């Protein structure tokens, strides 16, 4: 009624004639080309098209392509955000948007489109905006046995237990709470696997840093053997601090004679605060003793020679 007026002449097609009731069913639409055939010939999956939002439902949005063709935009195709509750939070009736065609079924006259496929993924947005080594504040979203997932600028980053605490026995699930805000550093942005790895070790003081405030290289220490490995022996110094004596640094001790619980004397040979490592050397201690003995011997010899020289002078 909006397209035609009385007395307009239009082409029609007879669909049905009822002789008994003397009724004639006509169609104007049947005389025009089927727009779905045009869609089939001109549109392909992957094409980007401009459409108008015609109707919004809780489960998705119907969009108008023109020429009496309507497509459907499911709620899951509106945004990469998986927590959308209502399409009206993102779109309004009458709004023009660009979408990508993801399905064409001309037989069943169905056309599906996607809005999110034309948008950068949250990971891509994050990778463009941030870089490795950057400090960020995030919210703990999930706690697991191996660590925590932290929400950062729209995506989740993984914080492993070993990257969250210096103490190997401390775990995120025991010391963090869901919803808690924490500061983290981006350790790695894996573009191939679309993963963000996080760390907190650069933001909290390591035990070795505290140890280094009281000790220096070549300081003498006494340790209790805690563990014996193929590559060396771990000893506990200062009650809580673990230190490694490598096999080559055990001399003159014999490794096969060392037992857990034994006491070993050595000197500090490495303080690595960044990697939270301390090494101790028995060999280095022995060399220090040798140098000290040699120095004492030379000093003693010089004293005797000086005394002899004095006596010789007196005799003359």
Note down, in words, how this protein is organized.
It contains 6 helices and 17 strands. It has 316 residues and is an alpha+beta fold. The strands form 4 sheets. The chain has a 5-stranded antiparallel beta sheet. Strands 10-9-8-11-12 form a 5-stranded antiparallel beta sheet. The model has no long low-confidence stretch (mean pLDDT 85).
Name the descriptors.
38% strand; alpha+beta; single chain; rod-shaped; five-stranded antiparallel sheet
Determine the strand fraction and express it as a percent band. Answer: 35-45%
Helix content: 10-25%
Report the total helices. 6
Strand order of the largest sheet: 5-4-3-6-7
Indicate the radius of gyration in whole angstroms: 40 Å
What layout of secondary structure does this protein have?
Elements (H helix, E strand, L loop, with lengths): L12 E6 L4 E5 L7 H8 L5 E10 L2 E7 L2 E6 L21 E10 L4 E5 L7 H8 L5 E9 L3 E6 L2 E6 H4 L7 H4 L5 E10 L4 E5 L7 H6 L7 E9 L3 E6 L3 E6 L16 E10 L4 E5 H34 L1
Antiparallel strand pairs: 1-2, 3-4, 3-6, 4-5, 6-7, 8-9, 8-11, 9-10, 11-12, 13-14, 13-16, 14-15, 16-17
């Amino acid at each position: 009624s909006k397209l035609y007026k009385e007395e307009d002449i239009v082409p029609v097609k007879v669909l049905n004639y009822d002789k008994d009731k003397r009724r004639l069913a006509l169609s104007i639409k049947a005389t025009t080309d089927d727009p779905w055939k045009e869609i089939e010939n001109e549109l392909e999956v992957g094409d980007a098209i401009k459409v108008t939002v015609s109707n919004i439902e809780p489960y998705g949005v119907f969009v108008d392509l023109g020429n009496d063709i309507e497509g459907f935009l499911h709620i899951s195709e509106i945004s990469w955000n998986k927590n959308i509750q209502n399409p009206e939070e993102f779109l309004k009736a009458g709004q023009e948007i660009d979408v990508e065609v993801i399905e064409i079924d001309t037989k069943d006259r169905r056309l599906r489109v996607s809005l999110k496929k034309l948008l950068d993924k949250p990971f891509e947005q994050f990778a463009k905006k941030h870089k490795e080594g950057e400090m960020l504040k995030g919210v703990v979203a999930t706690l697991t046995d191996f660590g925590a997932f932290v929400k950062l600028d729209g995506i989740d980053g993984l914080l492993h237990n070993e990257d969250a605490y210096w103490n190997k026995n401390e775990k995120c699930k025991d010391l963090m709470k869901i919803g808690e805000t924490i500061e983290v550093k981006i350790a790695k942005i894996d573009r191939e696997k679309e993963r963000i790895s996080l760390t907190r070790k650069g933001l909290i003081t390591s035990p070795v840093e505290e140890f280094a405030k009281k000790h220096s290289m070549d300081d003498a220490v006494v340790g209790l053997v805690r563990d014996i490995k193929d590559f060396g022996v771990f000893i506990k110094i200062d009650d809580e601090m673990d230190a490694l004596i490598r096999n080559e640094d055990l001399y003159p001790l014999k490794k096969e004679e060392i037992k857990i619980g034994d006491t070993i004397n050595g000197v500090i040979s490495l303080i690595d605060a960044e990697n939270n490592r301390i090494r101790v050397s028995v060999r280095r201690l022995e060399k220090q003793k040798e140098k000290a003995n040699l120095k004492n011997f030379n000093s003693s010899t010089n004293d005797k020679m000086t005394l002899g020289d004095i006596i010789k002078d007196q005799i003359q």
